[in-house]
């Protein structure tokens, strides 16, 4: 469903993504692991075009995303309107939750549907209430982010991403900023989503969680996918020397 | 000769004019600043340059000079003009530059991650502007904005130079008649204090209201 071909990206002369190729099928859960600075978060951000990439292409269901291909000319950035429409097919959850501090939990969740997808106010609110109760926050609809714990904020952020009814969910180290005792409540929410047929790409350091929910794990090293395979292959029978080293360090 | 209670009434009336001038200029200055601020973030370099030039010139000129300049410039163009209208124009120009810089600071204070989440939700530029940027900038900008509003009341005294009859002008008239310098100036400063204090109270109340709506100072 998602096809990533030859993505390259450099920051000031340093190439952080050096030709990434990946195919993610619909409903598949893919975990990206790797040392910090290996490019996994950059890759995730490129998929949502929060980061522009220098070369390569990303297709979603056969539609070229973010750029328009000129007939034998250079590629051209899609219009803002196009970008917004394409982004609505994906949901992103960030490490630092990134909720809007001036809006209640419910308002945060309703914002995308209401003003991105132009859903009617009542419909957006109904969807918002449903999602917040699904992530266990039906009691905190009117709470502001500052009044919620980290775990609760992250669950609101997940509900906010789901409110767009995305085909793809991009999760960027969503439990890394949480106190250990709050990690489980967020992981439970994600576990609950695995039956939904939403493709997920998660950047994570939580190996046991990745092993449990991911269909495949990709080890990113030096801006390339060094090894990719089923969780038990990657975590128990690694072949790439860099991956072996990485796994030894984190254990 | 001592100033009389009727002099105090005259000064109270003049204070109202000062306040009216300040409030009008604050209103127009805010509108102008809201239109100016986006230029600071425009894609077009010429727009950003125009913004910086405007702020640089207006902020770098003493209000007194700005007042004389505007008054004579307007007068030479239109012939006789009301000094009150000219006064509002002067203060509007002056305040718009200060407000625009405050709003620009407010936009810069929006944490990058919030731009990311706005974009990732597929919001249009217009929705991002109205739903995210405006409410946040309003909150970040309020304290320095009020600071400038208080300054506006005091800056209105400069308009006496272009014969705007306001509190400072009226005070000078009474001093010239009565020579009761200290008492007149004391009364004038009490009036200025009351006006500034009132603006401060209204501002605090607004800050309180916005804070009650869940803004804990530290965003995201």
Which series of helices and strands of chain A comes N to C? EEEHEEEEHEHHHEHEHEEHH
**What is the CATH architecture term of chain A?**
3-Layer(aba) Sandwich
In N-to-C order, the SSE pattern of chain B is: HHHHHHHH
The whole-angstrom Rg of chain B is 21 Å
Uncertain regions of chain A: pLDDT < 50 for 5+ in a row?
none
Q: How can the largest sheet of chain A be summarized?
A: 6 strands, mixed
Give the overall shape of chain A, derived from the CA principal axes.
globular
Oligomer: heterodimer
Number of individual domains of chain A: 1
Distance between the termini of chain A: 34 Å
Structural class of chain A: alpha/beta
Provide an overview of this structure.
The complex is a heterodimer of chains A (251) and B (220). Chain A is an alpha/beta fold and 251 residues long. Chain A has one domain: P-loop containing nucleotide triphosphate hydrolases (Rossmann fold, 3-Layer(aba) Sandwich), CATH 3.40.50.300. Chain A has nine helices and twelve strands. In chain A, the strands form three sheets. A six-stranded mixed β-sheet of chain A has the order 8-9-10-3-11-12, with helices on both faces. A four-stranded antiparallel β-sheet of chain A has the order 2-1-4-5, covered by helices on one side. In chain A, helix 3 packs across helix 4 and helix 3 packs parallel to helix 5. With 220 residues, chain B is mostly helical. Helices cover 81% and strands 0% of the residues of chain B. The longest helix of chain B has 36 residues. The mean pLDDT of chain B is 90. Chain B has one domain: MetI-like fold. Chain B is flat and about 75 Å long. At the A-B interface, helix 2, strand 8, helix 3 and helix 5 of A face helix 5 and helix 6 of B.
């Amino acid at each position: 469903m998602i096809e990533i071909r030859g993505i390259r990206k450099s920051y000031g002369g340093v190439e952080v993504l050096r030709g990434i190729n990946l195919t993610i099928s619909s409903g598949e859960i893919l975990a990206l692991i790797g040392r910090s600075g290996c490019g996994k978060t950059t890759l995730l951000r490129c998929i949502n075009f929060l980061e522009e990439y220098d070369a390569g292409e990303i297709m979603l269901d056969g539609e070229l995303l973010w750029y328009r291909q000129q007939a034998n000319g250079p590629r051209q950035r899609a219009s803002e309107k196009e970008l917004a429409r394409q982004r609505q097919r994906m949901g992103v959850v960030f490490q630092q939750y990134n909720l809007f501090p001036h809006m209640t939990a419910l308002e945060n969740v309703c914002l995308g549907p209401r003003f991105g997808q132009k859903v009617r106010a009542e419909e957006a609110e109904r969807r918002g209430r449903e999602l917040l109760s699904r992530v266990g926050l039906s009691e905190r609809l009117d709470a502001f982010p500052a009044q919620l714990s980290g775990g609760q904020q992250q669950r609101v952020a997940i509900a906010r991403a789901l409110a767009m009814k995305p085909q793809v969910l991009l999760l960027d180290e969503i439990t890394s900023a949480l106190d250990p005792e709050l990690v489980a409540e967020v992981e439970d929410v994600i576990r609950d989503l695995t039956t939904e047929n939403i493709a997920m790409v998660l950047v994570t350091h939580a190996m046991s969680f990745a092993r449990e929910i991911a269909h495949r794990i990709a080890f990113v090293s030096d801006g390339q996918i060094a090894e990719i395979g089923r969780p038990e292959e990657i975590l128990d029978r690694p072949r790439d020397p860099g991956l072996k080293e990485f796994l030894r360090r984190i254990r | 000769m001592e100033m009389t209670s009727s002099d105090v009434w005259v000064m109270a009336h003049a204070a109202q004019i000062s306040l009216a001038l300040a409030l009008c200029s604050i209103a127009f200055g805010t509108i102008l600043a809201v239109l100016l601020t986006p230029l600071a973030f425009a894609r077009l370099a010429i727009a950003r340059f125009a913004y910086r030039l405007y702020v640089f010139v207006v902020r770098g000129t003493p209000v007194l000079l700005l007042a004389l300049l505007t008054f004579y410039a307007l007068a030479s163009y239109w012939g006789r003009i009301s000094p009150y209208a000219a006064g509002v124009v002067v203060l509007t120009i002056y305040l718009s530059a200060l407000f625009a810089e405050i709003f620009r600071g407010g936009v810069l204070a929006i944490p990058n991650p919030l731009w990311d989440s706005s974009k990732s939700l597929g919001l249009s530029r217009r929705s991002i502007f109205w739903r995210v940027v405006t409410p946040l900038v309003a909150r970040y900008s309020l304290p320095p904005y009020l600071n400038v509003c208080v300054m506006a009341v005091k800056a209105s005294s400069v308009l006496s130079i272009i014969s705007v009859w306001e509190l400072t002008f009226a005070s000078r008239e009474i001093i010239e008649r009565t020579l009761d310098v200290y008492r007149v100036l004391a009364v004038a400063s009490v009036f200025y204090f009351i006006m500034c204090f009132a603006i401060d109270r209204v501002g605090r109340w607004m800050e309180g209201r916005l804070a009650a709506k869940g803004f804990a100072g530290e965003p995201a």
